């Protein structure tokens, strides 16, 4: 009977020790940085008459304000695209515009939970053209506030005629 009691005590102590040993790992996992950590990307803006901007930008998802569209989040959670905030192409454009002192404007579409980029550096899309967004040479399948950027990505806003 004493041996059985000693084994149970040993098993309980071992289980408790394992549980306590794993607690710091679980706590650490919860405090690690989220996916919205800033990333450095290369942003290119190509207008109908040539290059309007090219530079490396440090960005993360954030609220964006345009004259036409107002203020809305642009952090990858738009349209339920990602469960938590992430860096996005439109946030990168917004960061570049603020840091490099150029303008852009976009219309907010609540039904898409995203902006349509209408004008960059006074160059408008409009009736027969639009601003195409691509990452690493491929057009994004979702809006610029929904697509997740990774460090080193090549982001392009290209004026494209129909």
Automatic annotation (TrEMBL):
The record's section on InterPro entries has: TAT_signal (IPR006311), Transcobalamin-like_C (IPR027954)
Arranged from A to Z, the UniProt key words for this protein are: Signal
UniProt-listed PROSITE patterns: TAT
The Transcobalamin-like C-terminal domain covers: 118-160
Q: Does the keyword Signal apply?
A: yes
Signal sequence segment: 1-29
Q: Can you say what this protein is called?
A: DUF4430 domain-containing protein
| Lineage of the species this protein comes from | Bacteria, Bacillati, Actinomycetota, Actinomycetes, Kitasatosporales
């Amino acid at each position: 009977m004493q041996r059985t009691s000693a084994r149970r005590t040993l098993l309980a102590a071992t289980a408790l020790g394992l549980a306590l040993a794993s607690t710091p790992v679980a706590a650490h996992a919860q405090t690690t940085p989220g996916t919205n950590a800033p990333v450095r990307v290369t942003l290119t803006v190509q207008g109908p008459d040539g290059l309007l901007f090219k530079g490396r930008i440090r960005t993360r998802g954030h609220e964006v304000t345009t004259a036409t569209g107002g203020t809305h989040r642009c952090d990858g959670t738009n349209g339920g695209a990602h469960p938590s905030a992430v860096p996005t192409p439109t946030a990168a454009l917004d960061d570049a515009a603020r840091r490099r002192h150029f303008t852009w404007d976009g219309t907010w579409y609540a039904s898409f939970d995203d902006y349509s980029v209408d004008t960059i550096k006074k160059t408008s899309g409009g009736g027969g053209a639009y601003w195409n967004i691509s990452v690493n040479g491929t057009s994004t399948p979702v809006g610029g506030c929904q697509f997740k950027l990774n460090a080193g990505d090549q982001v392009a806003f290209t004026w494209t005629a129909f």
